[in-house]
Design a protein that fits this description.
The chain is 54% helix and 4% strand. The termini are far apart. It is mostly helical and 279 residues long. The strands form 2 sheets. The protein has a two-stranded antiparallel sheet. A two-stranded antiparallel ribbon has the order 3-4.
Amino acid sequence: MSTTHNKAASTPDATTGSRHTVPGSPKAPGKPGILGTSGTPGASGKPRTPNASENSRVPSEAPAGISATPGTAPVRGWRHTAAWTYLIMLLSSLAALIVSFALSAETLQLARHPHQQLSCDISSAVSCSTVAQSWQAEFIHFAGMSFPNAFFGIAAESVFVTVAALGISRIAVPRWFALCTWLGGLAALLYAYWLFTQSMYVINALCPWCLGLMFATTVQFISLTHATACIQRIPSPSSSASRVLHTYYRLNIDLLADAVWIIILVALILAKHGSVLLR
């Protein structure tokens, strides 16, 4: 029993030595004609649109200037959008601004009536006037004048409110501006924490308004850092630090870290003045 094989016959060219296909023989099967991949048209002679399975076999290319690594891709999800991150920053900055105005009013009230108790004087451990009369409350001097810390809070928080409004509006800002904003937020956080430690362990009195300002500044810095990493893409998407931050926010590790951060602050307050606060 014989089997006939329908193969394409090729013969050598006597003049050139190259091989050519004998007319009438079928062509060897090729790859599907996907426009942009193999460069050959479909059966009708027109470029054929690739189907879903063919698309899945086409390798994706990273945008120009960005390496195709998971760490450089933008973090997806509603928590990482400009609307959410800058909204949290706006609310916390507004809270810090309101507290700064309240502290300024208390400072002026104390200046007019030095021996009068303030509305936030609850006990010896919780007393705004005790904190306001310390040198730490007005340690910045210029041209022979001292300036209360609350005045600087009004100026700084007004800037952060403006930046948050720009972020919610999706107005593009230069990278240097975004970096300077983050550095300003870090400076505000360190300033608030220095005042917090001075109040806790040196003055030995708590100011409710100061505590509110410290917690508001903490949330402000958390949201500002989130927006700087996920929206402004600082540091550079091609850096190793960017890949670390990508994983940090993509896996929602930041939620756990932020919760632990706040719990530690509350624990420090309770450890020092818990017996007075919980009476």
